[in-house]
What does this fold into?
Amino acid sequence: MTLDRVWLRVVLILGFMLAVSGSSRAGGVGFTDDEINEDDGPSYFGFVREVDGPGVADAKVTAALKDRGALVTRTDIMGVYKIPGFGKDVDPKDITISCAKDGYKETSVERRPSTDPKEPVEIECYLQKQ
Amino acid sequence: MTARTPALRLRCRLRHCAVGALAICSLWAVPAWAQTLSGSVSSVDEPVMEGVLVSAQRAGSSIIVTVVSDEHGRFRFPDGRLPPGHYTLRVRAVRYDLDGPKTVDLGPASADVAIRLRRTGDLAAQLTNTEWFMSMPGTPEQKRPLIECMSCHTFERIVRSTYNAETFVPVLKRMAQYANNTTQARVQSRLAEREVHDDLVRKLAAYLATVNLSGGPAWPYELQTLPRPKGRATHVIITEFQLPRDTIAPHDVRTDAQGNVWYSNFVENFLGELDPKTGENRDYPIPVLKPGSPMGTLDLEADADGNLWLAMMFQTGLAKFDMATKTFQIFPMQAALNDDAQQQSMVMPRSARVDGKVWTNDVARQSIMRLDLKTGKYDLIDPFKFLAGHQHGPYGMAADAQNNLYFMDFGDENIGRVDAKTGEATIYPTPTPKSRPRRTMLDEQGRLWFTEFAANKIGMFDIGTESYKEWNLPTPHTYPYDVFMDKNGQLWSGGMASDRVLRLDPQSGSAIEYLLPRPTNIRRVFVDNSTTPVTFWAGNNHGAEILRLEPLD
It folds into this structure.
């Protein structure tokens, strides 16, 4: 991994941790809400990119938990997606990430190794033009 | 008397028929009253005033008609809309009051009046919630909790108070225990006490004490106002139908094929019907299932047969109203789930024919429920069970042709889908965080149109491509409650803050905001596509009236 890519990952992780800490307070309905949430598991982020190519904007990213449900989001202009944390009881290994976009097929999904269970989980998804 | 021959009798009959037909035709062609009321509006500051709302109410009538002055300062009520009689006049023009004339007598001839306005001595009484939001100092985070206050009252009640940071605390704690179906005319307490966070209450109390009159007789900030309507926003006729009791709180409103208006009553156990031709109101009592619990219903939806369904709030369960027999069938909640906190605010019966299931929600458990029409039992489905423990709130609902459910997560920032066959949930976060999607409609192209209440946006979610689009509203702090796409592809929206109805063209992004004649707390909006131009309907939840808005273009 080049130094530039290491820095990019550090920036993405830090930026995403800040964004998620804000969104975990989202959706309060006044002073009766439980706005403080300590039940979050790690969040997920990564690129959807063409194999050896650029990031793919507006790709659909699905984070599925077998037999329980799924969360669907889309990549930004850089091809980056972000998914806030699932429940603390959810083992990150049980989360399956997939990506899709018209005119492409998914070729592989790569999970970056992580040792800290509280750190965001980085998962890259690769697409190939059809 | 001369005896008539059969031929003469026939001629006479034909002549009578012809005269009768002529009379009927002439009645049809010429209204009983063809006169109109027109006039001009001016003030000491502006000899020609555009965008002044002029309202006329005939003595003894429950119907108020409003038109808006044009760029020449002229207004004109449509021919035949006002029957002869003694009328009270009213105006809405921020920073001005009506000087005169305050009444007018309409006879068989047309009348033209010169309306004079004087500067108001009480600007605060004229401000909308949106204008208070604009005026009050403070950060968005400080102001955010106030969007809950609008459910029960306007901000005028807050800003005219003299509570300080300490004396505000018990007031806020008391109000937290009121049911959400509370109005000033009918305050209702919850049976199940809500948990209140003392630190959050104190933070809000401290902020409110900086924007009310606790520090002195005047507000320590300048009062800001929105401009009066201009151009196309003046091309409108607005009709208010006053309901017979102050306690009636129309929440969801819709018309039937005969043009009658049906509405849910948020604080009383009645389904309401209004005949807009006469203004006559009729109440259909809904059985009380839980005496002592707050009364009233919220969501009013039609099923595929045209029958109406109501979500019974704290009375719990669902009610089906048969439009042919005018009777209710009640689907009560089973005892195991029916505690004091139980509350159904939404119902979605649209595709119940597919599988015999009707969707609803469990507000207290932040979950979805599904009624099995055969057994009468409700299933509980937690669509967020795999997500982190954020605050959620399934709210506005729509169902596709297979009876898959789409719901708005009003507590957070998602649209959810529950598969009708598997019960599995898919969550779609909105592009804008903290958006709090509220009510929705599904159009024939498979597009969910919805309001992003806290984000001040209207959104569209395409259920085929699973992708979003968003539109910013032209006025800040509008906080849209609901949106409706009409037959022309125009969006109509309203809410609790701005006293305005928004008409937005999603293609061009251009918008018209129609100012309403008085403080108007709008919830569900409805557009009657059978008229040309279309007709907009809504209830004034705090004002005991039904509102009809007819754009002139």
Q: What stands out?
A: Confidence is low (pLDDT under 50) at residues 1-8, 17-32 of chain B. The first helix of chain B runs from residue 6 to 29. The CA atoms of residues 321 and 506 of chain B lie 35 Å apart.
